[in-house]
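Incident log, entry 3
Record: Iron-binding zinc finger CDGSH type domain-containing protein (137 residues)
Problem: checksum mismatch between cached and fresh output.
Input:
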Amino acid sequence: MFAKRLVAISKPYSQHTVTYVTKAPKPEIPRNPLRDVYSASSQQTNGVVYDRKPFKVTLEAGKTYSWCLCGRSKNNPLCDGTHKDIYLKITQRPVRFTVEKTKEYWLCNCKQTKNRPFCDGTHKSKEVQEATNVKVG
Ligand code: FES
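Fresh output:
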């Protein structure tokens, strides 16, 4: 019986498939389904660098959120209305967004992402890492 089992699991050398994994797969970067609905999504300027790294947040599917683009919210990465302060002369408006699945997402906190409001790795750039006006260390 033992000899039969060995025969059953052994295959000729040519039938084995060897897969080498040298890097972990890149995480999926979600897109904002509301990016074409609100004009604020296509603003040309970015806000100040709030932080040099993204922030992980659990978001609910179908709920609408406002992501802070100006970088001055005290509730980052979400908007708290600071951009409305006329004395600060902030030109950026928050970006409304939603998600299709309830789960954790990495939201951009450097405010320089090209895939608002989700982190796309731009925070690793020299400009962000060496920014001097960062709100959070
Ligand atoms: S935190 Fe802004 S791109 Fe990652």
